[in-house]
Amino acid sequence: MLSTYSDLAGKTAVITGGSRGIGAETARRFAAQQTNVCVVGRDKRALDSVVAEILAAGGTAVAAVADVTSAAALADVRTLVEGEFGRVDILGVFAGGMGQPTPSSELSEELWWQALDANLTSAFLTVRTFLPMLLAQGSGSIITMSSSAGRQPSQANLAYGVANAGVIMLTRHLAAELGPRGIRVNAIAPSSIRTEKVAANMPEPVQEQVAAMHPLRRMGVPGDVAETALFLASDASSYLSGITIDVAGGRITN
Q1: Contact residues for 212 (Cβ-Cβ < 8 A; gap 6+)
Q2: HEC states along the chain?
Q3: Cβ atoms within 10 A of the Cβ of 195, count?
Q4: Residue 77: beta bridge partners?
């Protein structure tokens, strides 16, 4: 059963990392709340598929092909959103990746910078791009995507963990800075989420082992994260800012 947040109807959400997986499912669920959605990613075919699905279900959505590590590309996305919807109320900063396990002794400088750019620099640039619009309105909800790897050491590589820990501090700093201006900023830190990519690349026995590591004895699904994003964007969480929610099946960090 999907949650219903009537206050999200008519608002506009920008979701980066929206081509597939968590970002795509979040875009679909916002659209189901009658939120206008701009889905941002690098894969035009995948974005067009997500938008077509939303439109077929009666929602409103546009696609924006952009590399979110590029300030110029993000400025073009802002221009598109301004032209289509005139405002932005919800910013889902979901783009990221590069978490493949790599021993730190073998971590290349190239992978270090790629992971930091994909997860942390992209988050900074996305927020900086849309922040003037939010400040002018005096309202808005920014939702960043971290990871359980940014909460505690994991099998992901060092650069990915450091970048996602940085996203959490970026979130807390912005929440403190922007709260007086009417803007809330919160983070989501998923653990093991069974996205299409995970399902295709992780053997079933390994998925069962991973599920057994969580007190709820299952892996998460993209909808688990998407529903958390809806809550954080809605008035139901109006007194929450600067927090990180572990969508982790009971594997809670300190």
Answers
A1: none
A2: CCCCCHHHCCCEEEECCCCCHHHHHHHHHHHHCCCEEEEEECCHHHHHHHHHHHHHCCCCEEEEECCCCCHHHHHHHHHHHHHHCCCCCEEEECCCCCCCCCCHHHCCHHHHHHHHHHHHHHHHHHHHHHHHHHHHHCCEEEEEECCHHHCCCCCCCHHHHHHHHHHHHHHHHHHHHHHHHCEEEEEEEECCECCHHHHHHCCHHHHHHHHHCCCCCCCECHHHHHHHHHHHHCHHHCCCCCCEEEECCCCCCC
A3: 22
A4: none
Say which amino acid occupies 100: Q
Q: CA dihedral defined by 61, 66, 70, 71, rounded to 10 degrees?
A: -30
Catalytic residue IDs? 160
Residue 252 has pLDDT above 80, yes or no: no
| 195 phi, psi to nearest 5 deg | -80, 175
Let me know: does 90 contact 39? Beta carbons within 8 Å.
Answer: no
- Note the residue count of the chain: 254
User: Are 82 and 133 in contact, with CB atoms under 8 Å apart?
Assistant: yes
What residue type is 156 in one-letter code?
Answer: A
| Model pTM score | 0.94
Adjacent-strand bridge partners of 14: 38, 91
CA dihedral (82, 86, 91, 95) in degrees, to 10, reads -30
Using the Cα atoms of residue 77, residue 79, residue 80 and residue 82 in order, give the sign of their dihedral. Answer: positive
Q: What is the mean pLDDT of residues 50-54?
A: 98
In tens, the pLDDT along 228-242 reads 999 999 999 999 999
